[in-house]
TrEMBL record:
Cited InterPro entries: Phage/GTA_portal, Portal_HK97
Lineage: Bacteria, Pseudomonadati, Pseudomonadota, Alphaproteobacteria, Rhodospirillales
Stored Pfam families: Phage_portal
Protein's recorded name: HK97 family phage portal protein
Amino acid sequence: MLGWIKNSLFTERKSDDGYELLTGGALPTAAGVSVSPESAMRCSVSFACIKVIAETIEQLTPHLYRRTGDDRERATDHPVSALVTKAANDWTPASEFRLVLGTHFATHGNAYAFVNRDTAGRVVELIPLDPRAVSVRQDPRTMAPVYMVGTSNTALPAREYDRSEILHIRGVGLDVHKGASPVTLGREAIGLALTLESHCGSLFGNGAKPSGLLKVKGTLGEEQFRRVRAMFSNFYQGVTGKRIMILSDAMDFQQVQLTSVDSQTLEMRRFQVEEVSRFWRVPLHLVNEMDRATHANAESMGQQFLTFCMLPILRLWCDAMAITLLTPVERETHYFEFEVNDIARADIAARFEAYSKAINSGVLNPNEARGKENMPGYEGGETFMRPVNTAPAPTTGGAGGTMGATDA
């Protein structure tokens, strides 16, 4: 059994005992650069996608609810409630805990935390784990996942953990027990984006011009060649150290490398923003690509981000916390739910118009609407309203029968 995990960049392979190990190096790409989670964070687009997902999870608070008949209430008396809403442990606020695990999830496709329990089996701490130091295998008897957690920066013996000891939030992937890293899946797109950025830096580092050439009539001796180069370079070479080509006699030079205009660098860089964003399903306006964003569609794109990007992730969080932090009996009456109203809200005019319609139609009472705005209720505000020109539909007869009775 492998007792340690290398401190480097990581790829996946299987050990003899069935563990999914993280070893090796960054994966090469056709663009000529190797892409790893570390180098992906230096790509502005992938970093922005990871950041927006992680910080969205950070600002949304999961609450533990208890079903009470047809209603529900927050189970603030449950010990797990304080861990997910206030502090995961003595040194990690709950928001920071969500930020760390959200970053791991968006980068590696998996997020892990050690679930520390007291002697009675109650959860007392949640401690984030480095996903590069966690490997997974399937127990051949129970078919449940078993986790081996080592230390990523030292060669210490690894230790096995039961499923109940590890909070595992798994992303999309073909593996039964682990999600696939978006960075690994999108390494070609990220690699091209990094290459284009490096190309633009090199281009403008040389004054946004290709290197020049100097034509001299006749043949230059070796000493003359060195003198001409030194004299010309003193005036024109600049600070980048780009050397000047000197041609003599009938030699000529024809440039074959594409210029920034020929290669449509700007268009390619803009396209890579779209291409990389697809792997995280983040709308372009959230990574500051505003070419197609307008006042009319920005709100719609924000709603799409919540519906198609964040809600599936939040559902994974809720189910993972429920199956790991709650007992089977508690799961019958308790469940986790994220409060998403803050990012689902429309502008204030549309929001208050919706409240007005909900109150007038009896869907909400005034105090419930005020509660959604974090304002205290008032006396009499718990009364539900109904328009005076409406009444229950008759249970017998029709409109014609009623009119006939009236006429009679």
